[in-house]
Design a protein that fits this description.
Elements lengths: L6 H7 L20 E5 L6 H6 L6 E2 L5 E5 L3 E10 L6 E3 L7 E7 L5 E6 L16 E3 L7 E10 L3 E4 L2 E3 L1 H36 L2 H20 L2 H5 L5 H26 L2 H4 L1 H22 L3 H29 L2 H24 L7 H71 L7 H26 L9 E5 H11 L6 E4 L8 E5 H17 L5 E9 L3 E7 L32 H11 L3 E6 L4 E8 L5
Parallel strand pairs: 13-15
Antiparallel strand pairs: 1-2, 1-4, 3-10, 4-9, 5-8, 5-11, 6-7, 6-9, 12-14, 15-16, 16-18, 17-18
C-alpha cells in the first residue's frame, strides 16, 4: 500500500512542477472509462487491470450515482501522462466510506492507495477534507491504467475529476472560505438569539440559538471539518456525529416553526403531529449516537423533505394572519427545500453529481441563516413594541391609582371621623353598634385599598434600598395586633416568643405586607374563624405564616397568586385591586427572602421566609 503523503508536500512542492497549461480534465471526457457495480469479493484488482473488457459499462457522463447500495463500484480508466506532471484524482463526494486506487508500478507490482471517510485523516494519501488520491508519477510519456474501487454505506455518488496541485489548492481554499462564512453567520445568529433571550427571557430565542449552533455543527460534520480538526484518528465517530446533528437539526427546525409562528393557534392538530415528529427526530439522534445512522439516513432524508414541504404549505395561509414571520420562514426554507429535492433524487440514483445536486444546497443554507436573523429581528422588534405598550398601560394604570388614592384620602378621613363621633354619641344605643362597626370596617377596607395603591406607586423605592433595623418581635406583634381590623366573628392568635427575640427588617414595608395578609384572611373568611400568626426562628432565617379558615385558593390559581393585578376566580366578586399579594412578594423578595402559599383542608396559609440578619 502506498505510504501517506503530506498535504503540504502535495500542494506546495508539486505545484511548481505542474504543467502550466493544465487546468483540470473530467474523466468522463476520456473514451476509455469502464465500470461495474458488483457484490463484494466478486472481482480482484489484478484481474480487472489485466482484462478491463470484463467491465461491461462504459462511462457516459461526468458522474456516477447509484443511490444507497451495499455493492462495490469498480471503475477502470487510463490516462496519457507526461513526465513531471503531478495529478490528483478528486472524487467530489466527501462521504464515501472507503476508496481504493490500484495501478502497476514500473516493476509491474500492484500498488494500492486507500482513502475515504472511514480512513483516519492522517492515514489518507492526501490530507484533504474531500476525497483526493494522488496519481502515479511517470518518468516518460506513457499511458497508465488505473482501477478504482468504492464501497460505502451511504449514497454511492461521485464525480471523478483530475486536478493539478494549484487547482486543488484553490478549490480547498474556496471551500474553506465558503464554509467559514457560513459558520460565522451561524454564530452571529446564535449570539443575536442569545442576546434576545437575555432581554426577553422567551424560550423561543433559546431554540433559535440552539438551531443556529446545531445548523453550523451539521455542516461542520458533513463536510469533514470534524475529522480534520477534532478526531482525525476516529473516523467512525464522524458518521455518528453527522446523524446526531442531522436529527437535531430537523427537530429544532420543527420547534422553531412551532414557537415563532401561530401554527398552534390555527392548526392545533398539525402542531401535535409536529410535536410527535420532533420526538421521533430526538429518538433518531439517540439511535445515531450508538451507530444506527447508516440505516436511518434514507428515512431522514425523505421525512425531512416531507417535513419542509408541509411547513412551506402551512406558511401560506399563516401569512394572511401574521404576515412578516411566516413569509420570512417561507423565503428561508423554499431554496433549501428545492435544493434538498435535487440532493435526495441524486442520492437515490436519479440525478448525476453536479453543482445543482451538491453545492446549491450549501449555498441555500447560507440564505437560511440570513433569513433566520431577519426573523429574530422582526420578533425582537415586536417584543420591544409590546413591552413599550405594556409600559405605557402600566404608567396609565399607575396614574389612575395615584389619582384615585389621593382623591379618596380626604372623604375617607371625613367619614371615619364622623363614624367615630357617631359611635361615641350612640354608645347607649346597643342596636346601633353593629351597624356602625360594619360601616367602620368598610371604611377601613377602602383605606387599605388606598394604602396598597400608594404603596404600588412607591414600590420603585424598594430598589433604592431598605431601611433595615433590629426589631423586637414581641413588640412588633403587639403593634400588628392593634393595627389589624377584625370583625366580631374573627379572632387573631399571636404566638408566644422570647422577650428578646430580635430580627432585622424594614419595619414600615414588612408591616404593610403582613397587614395585607391579615386583611385578606379577614376578607376571604366571611363566616369568621381563627386567624393564626406563626413564627419560627433558626440561626439564618425566620419564617412567618398566616393561617386562616377561609375559602382557600383553587389549585389552578396558585402559580399566579403573586402576579400584579391577579385575582382568584371565586374571589373576584369581593372588592380589591389584586395588588396586595404582589406587594407582599415584592417586599419579601427585596429583603432576600421568599414567599409561598400552602393549601390546607380548611383555609389557606401564606408563608414568608426572611433572613435573620442583613445579608452582605
Amino acid at each position: 500500500m502506498l505510504a501517506a503523503t503530506a498535504a503540504a508536500d502535495d500542494f506546495a512542492s508539486t505545484s511548481a512542477t505542474a504543467t502550466d497549461s493544465y487546468s483540470g480534465t473530467l474523466i468522463s471526457s476520456l473514451p476509455t472509462g469502464r465500470w461495474v457495480l458488483s457484490t463484494a469479493g466478486q472481482w480482484l484488482p489484478e484481474q480487472l487491470l489485466a482484462t478491463p473488457a470484463s467491465l461491461p459499462n462504459s462511462l457516459q457522463g461526468q458522474s456516477l450515482s447509484f443511490g444507497y447500495t451495499n455493492k462495490e463500484l469498480w471503475l477502470w480508466f487510463e490516462l496519457a501522462q507526461q513526465p513531471e506532471q503531478v495529478l490528483f484524482l478528486q472524487l467530489g463526494s466527501s462521504f464515501l466510506d472507503q476508496v481504493d486506487l490500484f495501478y502497476l508500478d514500473s516493476q509491474g507490482q500492484l500498488v494500492q492507495q486507500q482513502s475515504g471517510d472511514h480512513i483516519p485523516f492522517f492515514q489518507r494519501p492526501v490530507l484533504s477534507r474531500s476525497l483526493v488520491l494522488r496519481l502515479k508519477d511517470v518518468e516518460q510519456e506513457r499511458i497508465v491504467a488505473y482501477l478504482l474501487r468504492v464501497t460505502t454505506g451511504s449514497a454511492m455518488t461521485l464525480r471523478p475529476q483530475l486536478q493539478s496541485p494549484g487547482d486543488l489548492l484553490v478549490q480547498e481554499k474556496n471551500s474553506t472560505l465558503l464554509y467559514g462564512i457560513l459558520f460565522g453567520l451561524s454564530l452571529l445568529a446564535a449570539v443575536l438569539a442569545l442576546i434576545s433571550w437575555g432581554w426577553t427571557r422567551q424560550s423561543a430565542f433559546l431554540t433559535a440559538a440552539a438551531y443556529s449552533l446545531v445548523f453550523a455543527w451539521f455542516h461542520f460534520t458533513i463536510n469533514g471539518f470534524d475529522q480534520q480538526y477534532l478526531y482525525p484518528q476516529l473516523p467512525a465517530l464522524s458518521d455518528r456525529m453527522i446523524g446526531v446533528s442531522a436529527f437535531l437539526f430537523a427537530a429544532l427546525l420543527l420547534q422553531l416553526v412551532r414557537q415563532f409562528t401561530p401554527i398552534r393557534q390555527f392548526f392545533p392538530r398539525l402542531d401535535q403531529a409536529m410535536l410527535w415528529l420532533l420526538c421521533a427526530h430526538l429518538a433518531g439522534a439517540l439511535a445515531s449516537l450508538v451507530g444506527a445512522y447508516p440505516l436511518l439516513a434514507p428515512w431522514l432524508m425523505l421525512s425531512g423533505l416531507l417535513q419542509m414541504a408541509v411547513i412551506l404549505a402551512v406558511m401560506l395561509p399563516l401569512i394572511k394572519h401574521d404576515k412578516p414571520v411566516p413569509l420570512l420562514f417561507f423565503a428561508m426554507l423554499l431554496p433549501g427545500w428545492l435544493a434538498l429535492i435535487l440532493q435526495v433524487i441524486r442520492n437515490l440514483g436519479g440525478l448525476p453529481y453536479n453543482f445543482w445536486t451538491s453545492h446549491l444546497w450549501a449555498l441555500s443554507t447560507m440564505l437560511q441563516v440570513v433569513f433566520l436573523m431577519l426573523v429574530l429581528l422582526v420578533v425582537l422588534n415586536r417584543e420591544q413594541q409590546r413591552l413599550r405598550q405594556q409600559l405605557e398601560e402600566n404608567s396609565a394604570l399607575q396614574r389612575f391609582y395615584q389619582l384615585m388614592a389621593h382623591e379618596l384620602r380626604t372623604p375617607l378621613a371625613v367619614i371615619s371621623s364622623a363614624l367615630t363621633n357617631l359611635q361615641w354619641q350612640t354608645s347607649t344605643v346597643p342596636e346601633a353598634k353593629p351597624r356602625i362597626e360594619r360601616a367602620r370596617m368598610a371604611v377601613a377596607r377602602l383605606n387599605n385599598l388606598v394604602d396598597n395603591a400608594l404603596a404600588e406607586d412607591r414600590l420603585h423605592l424598594l430598589e433604592q434600598g431598605l431601611q433595615l433595623e433590629p426589631v423586637v418581635l414581641v413588640d412588633w406583634l403587639a403593634e400588628l395586633q392593634s393595627l389589624c381590623l377584625l370583625t366580631d366573628k374573627h379572632q387573631l392568635v399571636i404566638p408566644s416568643l422570647a422577650p428578646d427575640a430580635t430580627v432585622w427588617f424594614d419595619k414600615q414595608w414588612l408591616t404593610l405586607a403582613v397587614l395585607n395578609l391579615l386583611d385578606n384572611a379577614v376578607k376571604y373568611s366571611p363566616t369568621g374563624g381563627t386567624i393564626e400568626l406563626e413564627i419560627t426562628l433558626s440561626s439564618e432565617h425566620w419564617t412567618l405564616a398566616v393561617h386562616d379558615q377561609g375559602s382557600g385558593v383553587a389549585t389552578a390559581d396558585i402559580p399566579q397568586l403573586f402576579q400584579r393585578g391577579f385575582r382568584a376566580r371565586p374571589h373576584r366578586a369581593i372588592s380589591g385591586l389584586g395588588l396586595g399579594l404582589h406587594l407582599v412578594a415584592m417586599v419579601v423578595q427585596t429583603h432576600g427572602g421568599k414567599v409561598w402559599y400552602q393549601s390546607k383542608t380548611l383555609g389557606s396559609s401564606f408563608c414568608l421566609q426572611l433572613p435573620v440578619r442583613p445579608t452582605a
